Amino acid sequence: MLFDILILLSTALVLGVVCERLRQSAILGYLAAGTLLGPNALQFISSASEVSALAELGVALLLFTIGLEFSWPRLRRLGAAALGGGTAQVVLTMVLGAMVALSFGMSARTALAIGAIVALSSTACVLRLLVSRAEIESNHGRHALGILLMQDIAVVPLVLLVTVLGGQGSLQQVGVDVFKTLGWACILLVVLFLLLNRVVPRVLHLESLHRNRDLPILLAIVTGLGSAWGSHKLGLSPALGAFVAGMLLAESPFATQVRADIASIRTLLVTLFFSSIGMLGDPAWFVRHLPAVLALVVAIVAGKAVIIWVILRLFRLTHTNALAAGICLGQVGEFSFVLAAVGRGTIISDDLFTLVISATITTLFLTPYLVALAPQLSVGIVARLSKMKLIAPASMQGAADVCPPKRPLVIIGFGPAGQAVGQTLERLADRVTVIDLNPNMIRKAQQLELSGHIGDAMHADVLEHAGITSAAAAVVTIPDPTAARAIVELIRSIAPEVHIIARARYHRYSADLQAGGAHEVIDEEQFVGARLAARLRKRLRAVDRPATDD
Fold first, then answer.
1. What is the 3-state secondary structure (H, E, C) of 484-534?
2. Nearest Cα residue to 313 out of 303, 305, 321, 304
3. b/e per residue, 321-331, with b = 16+ CB within 10 A?
4. How remote is the C-alpha of 284 from its chain's centroid?
5. Domain architecture of the chain: domains with CATH
6. Distance between CA atoms of residues 84 and 327, nearest Å
7. What is the pLDDT of residue 212?
8. How far is residue 197's CA from residue 191's CA, in Å, rounded to a whole number?
9. pLDDT category, 114, cuts 50, 70, 90?
């Protein structure tokens, strides 16, 4: 098994690099690695079931970290178009997808499962592409993000739905099973709420936990996987427990650092997950059934784009922005693999499963082109429809009707220097975000009504979650010159447009910080020297004045 994992990860690495060079998502490389080495191609992997079992841990950790992104205040800030539109998109796509499946003679259970599978889009691919193209703050980008977040929330109930649909018995029995499942889910929610709101935060505040950086990582993994195990023991999806645990911890100031701490192991296990899904692909089957696969791909891309277009128009977005968001989300997502795997062998036949997997992989390959062309395609389509008098010309106007959010200001380090900066920015408190590893410093920031994240700013995940990619400026007050330069360089690499102001404890480190990418460096020794000289001149004037008067 160890050799299988080694060769699978090595191949995934190589193909992931190739995909990135071709401006594709690395996920496609992971899928291709599994397909290439799997039982339907070169047959290099002999322990596919063991690899798949290990990969399920990756799904649990992935859903745990996604849950960490969701706090109730953040969900409210997304607005009605994102929350209502995202919910409506999942429901409407699932219903219409099920109706189409029924028209092809599928059973009601299978049709609902297919509708659930095509309702989801790819959060991993779309967000990465929108960020890299600096379109995440555009009107269509923000609404695409909101819909993706609502889809991520829908993953857990959809997994439950497909699991229940795969059970035996009549539809009435299925209904009973659904209510029973919801009852166990409520019990799980109460238990996790008590544990994660009463016990885990107190453990996270222990000083001994902060002296050893390995312990918070272990605590996070135990929390996520333990919740998944508890959910499984209650007969629920492990994904439900992991997601709920993350969501309950999202209110904690430790959420940002927890996410960063488990990022590496999550990446390893998620890579195995996508590779194990790729093993389910059948290249020979794909070639033999190419017309059916392409027809399904066209139906998915066009259907989802139109559904999202119509829904966002109901929330008063312009035609161009609504359609651009729909085009960006016109693929089937990575969590659809999870739904398909849950339904396989019960309500989804092997041929139907292979068709869905083949179409999903194809839509993921198309995603970089859909995101890149979405603004131009939407303008062109709206212009054509306007000429045909199918829509009003006024609806072609762009995104200028919605003011973009104010760009945040990030303070890294909240010691005396950082606190002085924060106090001067109190009237801009809604825009200021503080990053510090010390929980006491974050509490001081919150007393000033500043947003705070407990985390190590030398992790890209921590910076990104604090909003560095859209920030107007970042102030680095860390006294350690090595850490300060590393943070400056990291900010420069992931957010080259951000204006960086850095503190140099000693004069000899000023040049290092400037070389690292800081736009402005406040040299403490020069600053203190100038202030001392000013005070000295003031004192001399006071001393000399009586002599002059004489």
1. HHHHHHHHHHHCCCCEEEEEECCHHHHHHHHHHCCCEEEEHHHHHHHHHHH
2. 321
3. bbbbbbbbbbb
4. 34
5. 2-378 (1.20.1530.20), 409-534 (3.40.50.720)
6. 19
7. 67
8. 10
9. very high
Tokens of 291: 């017309």
What tens digit of pLDDT does each residue of 455-500 get? 888 888 888 888 888 888 999 999 888 899 999 999 998 888 899 9
Strand ranges across the sheet with 432-436: 451-454, 432-436, 409-412, 473-476, 499-504, 520-523
The helix (run of H) or strand (run of E) holding residue 472 is none
- The 10s digit of each residue's pLDDT in 222-268 is 888 888 888 777 766 676 678 778 877 777 767 777 777 777 777 77
Structure tokens at 348: 């989804």
Distance CA 465, CA 535 (A): 43
The Cα–Cα gap between 246 and 258 comes to 10
> Is residue 155 within 8 Å of residue 120, measured between CB atoms?
yes
Residues 112, 118: Cα–Cα separation, whole Å = 10
Question: In the predicted model, is pLDDT for residue 311 greater than 90?
Answer: yes
- CA angle 377/26/74 to nearest 5° reads 70
Whose tokens are 């060769």? That residue is 7
> Quick one: pLDDT at residue 398?
44
Count of other CB atoms within 10 angstroms of residue 138? 20
In this structure, what token pair is assigned to residue 226?
């333990």
Q: Which two tokens stand for residue 89?
A: 């998109």
Q: At what angle do helices 123-132 and 139-165 cross, to 10 degrees?
A: 170
Helix, strand or coil, per DSSP, at residue 457? coil
The burial class, CB within 10 Å (0-12 / 13-18 / 19+), for 112 is buried
Beta pairing, strands 432-436 & 451-454: parallel
Torsion 244-250-255-259 (CA) sign: positive
Structure tokens at 76: 């409210």
Alpha helices in 344-453 (DSSP H): 350-387, 416-424, 439-447
| Cα distance between the two ends of the chain | 96
Percent of the chain clearing pLDDT 70 (strictly above): 85
| Alpha-carbon span 67 to 51, nearest angstrom | 25
Judge contact between 55 and 280, C-beta under 8 A: no
DSSP letter (8 states) at residue 394: G
Closest CA to 117 of 95, 92, 94: 94
Residue 60: both structure tokens together: 């649990």
Q: Give the largest Cα separation in the chain, rounded.
A: 111
- In one letter, which amino acid is 100? V
Which among 251, 270, 335, 197 is positioned nearest to 69, based on CA atoms? 251
pTM (predicted TM-score): 0.66
Q: Name the residue type at position 522.
A: I
416: its two tokens: 């005396």
d(CA 30, CA 287): 20
Answer for the pair 224, 238: CB distance below 8 angstroms, yes or no.
no
DSSP 8-state code for residue 473: E
3-state secondary structure of 413: coil
Give the pairing type, strands 432-436 and 409-412: parallel
Residue type, 343: G
